[in-house]
Amino acid sequence: MKYLVIIEKGPNNFSAYVPDLPGCTSAGNTLEEILAGIREAIEGHLEVMREFGDPIPEPTSEPAFVDVAVAV
């Protein structure tokens, strides 16, 4: 399965979340660290869902970019 991951760069680190898995988040100091961390978070999140008998949601989120005019 491939889930959309949103990565946000803050002033001192990165954070990431998965829109299709509410509560599934991670943070890290580098892009490599955040990618490894969110993969681990997704795997753990899905494992807990299986343990509780919760249905695993299909990935449904898709990326889209919107162009907007910027006043200068």
Helix-strand blueprint:
Blueprint: E1 6-9, E2 14-17, E3 25-28, H1 31-51
Antiparallel strand pairs: 1-2, 2-3
Structure description:
The protein is an alpha+beta fold and 72 residues long. The chain has one domain (1-72): Double Stranded RNA Binding Domain (2-Layer Sandwich). Helix content is 29%, strand content 17%. It is built from one helix and three strands, in the order βββα. The protein has one helix spanning 31-51, and strands at residues 6-9, 14-17, 25-28. The protein has a three-stranded antiparallel beta sheet, with helices on one face. A hairpin with a 7-residue loop joins β2 and β3. The protein is flat. The mean pLDDT is 96.
Number of strands: 3
Q: Helix share of residues?
A: 25-40%
List the domain count as a whole number: 1
Counting helices, strands and paired strands, the structural category is alpha+beta
- The coarse silhouette is flat
Give the N-to-C terminal Cα separation.
43 Å
Order of helices and strands: EEEH
- The mean pLDDT is 96
CATH topology: Double Stranded RNA Binding Domain
Strand residue percentage:
15-25%
What's the alpha carbon Rg, rounded to whole Å?
15 Å
Count of runs of 4 or more consecutive helical residues: 1
How is the main sheet built? 3 strands, antiparallel
Major beta sheet, strand line-up: 1-2-3
